[in-house]
Design a protein that fits this description.
Blueprint: H1 2-8, H2 15-35, H3 37-45, H4 61-75, H5 79-89, H6 91-132, H7 135-146, H8 152-179, H9 185-205, H10 218-227, H11 243-247, H12 250-279, H13 285-315, H14 321-343, H15 351-364, H16 368-373, H17 375-379, H18 384-395, H19 398-409, H20 416-440, H21 454-461, H22 468-471, H23 478-483, H24 486-495
Helix pairs in contact: 2-6, 2-7, 2-8, 2-9, 3-8, 4-6, 4-19, 5-6, 5-7, 5-18, 6-7, 6-9, 7-8, 7-18, 8-13, 12-13, 12-18, 12-19, 12-20, 13-15, 14-15, 14-20
């Protein structure tokens, strides 16, 4: 029996793994383009410590906060539309356009800044945000189409680690590029070139679903489609979206709170670590970039540790999927919360301790991918893109606010007391957000995920005219009910 199962899955490394790798690389290059600004902005305002051959700009902390947050002004506008675009045109086309737009605006950034200053820089970041807002709805929808339930953690978590890889490279290589002969403009040129290269790779190898792929074997295609309980015409029809049920779903609301909390804490670290290290720990730009990248390198590596542990816990049935989600989310929220409190009390004399705690804080937070990020697919595989669009729209208002809050609080970047307030707020939000997820979160698929969720209501409203066949239909045997799949069971109960 086990040998037959292995054969039915197709190649050990199949096209579903290739799709996951493509998503990993796509998230990597687009996060490089998104996050390199936190290092670039330090080089642009302090050219003496990088390459003095390039222009230096006299921007104050308020200007910098506008630039750092402006990306998300555009980003939140296309999150929900991104879900609909993905359902209408497929992830392949939408992600291709998103990466092309990101590449073009990255390449023209240096010239535009020279011409228009920080105001034009903000405008470009807004436009890049508009293009990148569609990314996560598409990635989530794509994973839902390609990931068999038993491999969802593995393929999903690997794909999402592209964000960690991109963050590491954005922090690490940006400082090296700014110090080199290309100066700070080279950061934008390299980012644009990487996004363009991924576009070509995605155009050749990407596919919206298994039946559309020209590289997939028949065995692997059947395995994926049957494990997802897709009918033959599944990809040709449109499933109505149960908006009211989603809006009234307590597990989804709990997930939303968790995602907002995680986004606040992580965006605070991503945007403010370079400025904190430069202002409080007095690090120059190249060492700043290296040390700024270390926490996210730990995040990237620890995400694989979480993935292996989660696979073991689930395979040996030591914990349920819901328990794994809550355990990992607790570790990834509460440990960083404690570390942030301590970091705020450390100065230049304890720079090594501060760096170590930052590494721990950000690294441990990688558990949030398995803890809550993938929970949208658990709650509703059929509407995963819509859920991620809704949750990210709300959650990504937060990165707009965090740099602005930090810009108001941190008037003097050398004042450690002001940074204590910034990190303390993030720690409290981390703690409270996870409490909500622990109480109301779940990994169980919700009833409103059913293909025919809206149909039974129509059928029940017409129940006054009961057909003879329905009148004599026998009750469903409890044992048989447990053996059939849950969509069939749901439909059977509705008809009965």
């Amino acid at each position: 029996m086990s040998n037959e199962c292995k054969v039915s899955k197709g190649p050990r490394i199949g096209v579903r793994h290739l799709q996951s790798l493509l998503l990993f690389l796509g998230l990597t290059v687009m996060h490089i383009a998104r996050l390199n600004v936190s290092v670039a902005i330090v080089a642009m305002t302090n050219a003496a410590t990088t390459n003095p051959n390039f222009e230096e700009y006299d921007w104050n902390e308020r200007h910098k906060s506008y630039i750092l947050s402006s990306f998300y002004w555009g980003y939140i506008l296309t999150l929900c539309p991104g879900s609909f675009l993905c359902r209408r045109y497929g992830a392949k086309v939408v992600l291709f356009v998103a990466s092309c737009g990101t590449a073009i605006f990255s390449i023209i950034t240096p010239w535009c800044i020279t011409w228009g200053g920080w105001q034009v820089f903000c405008a470009i970041r807004i436009l890049q945000g508009l293009f990148q807002g569609v990314i996560f709805p598409c990635v989530t929808e794509h994973l839902a189409m390609w990931s068999p339930p038993e491999e969802r953690n593995r393929l999903g978590a690997f794909s999402y680690t592209g964000t960690d890889c991109g963050t590491v490279l954005a922090m690490f290589i940006s400082g090296m590029i700014a110090k080199g002969p290309m100066g700070w403009p080279g950061i934008s040129y390299v980012s644009g070139a990487l996004c363009g290269a991924w576009c070509i790779l995605w155009l050749i190898c990407g596919a919206n679903n298994a039946p559309e792929s020209r590289f997939i074997s028949e065995e692997e295609c059947k395995y994926i489609e049957s494990s997802l309980e897709h009918n033959e015409n599944f990809h040709e029809r449109s499933i109505p979206i149960p908006w009211r049920a989603i809006g009234c779903s307590v597990p989804f609301m709990a997930l939303l709170v968790a995602r907002c909390s995680e986004t606040y804490g992580l965006s605070t670290l991503q945007a403010e670590i370079p400025s904190y290290m430069n202002g409080v720990l007095n690090m120059e730009i190249q060492s700043n970039a290296v040390f700024s990248s270390l926490p996210f390198l730990a995040m990237w590596l620890l995400s694989y540790v979480y993935l292996i542990v989660a696979d073991i816990l689930l395979r040996k049935k030591w914990l349920s999927l819901t328990a794994v989600r809550k355990l990992f989310n607790t570790l990834s929220f509460w440990i960083p919360a404690a570390a942030l409190i301590v970091i705020g009390f450390l100065g230049e004399d304890h720079a090594n301790v501060a760096i170590a705690l930052m590494i721990v804080s950000v690294g441990v937070n990688s558990g949030a991918t398995i803890g809550s990020s993938l929970n949208t697919i658990d709650l509703s595989p059929n509407h995963a893109g819509i859920l991620i669009g809704l949750s990210n729209t709300v959650a990504n208002v937060i990165p707009i606010v965090t740099p602005l809050i930090a810009g108001v609080i941190v008037v003097d970047k050398h004042d450690r007391g002001q940074w204590q307030i910034v990190f303390g707020i993030a720690a409290i939000i981390f703690f409270v957000g996870n409490c909500v997820f622990l109480i109301w979160g779940t990994a169980e698929a919700q009833p409103w995920d059913a293909d025919d969720f809206l149909t039974p209501k129509d059928a029940e409203s017409c129940s006054t005219k009961k057909s003879p066949a329905a009148a004599i239909a026998p009750p469903i045997d409890p044992v048989l009910e447990q053996q059939i799949s849950w969509p069939e069971r749901y439909t059977a109960k509705a008809i009965d």
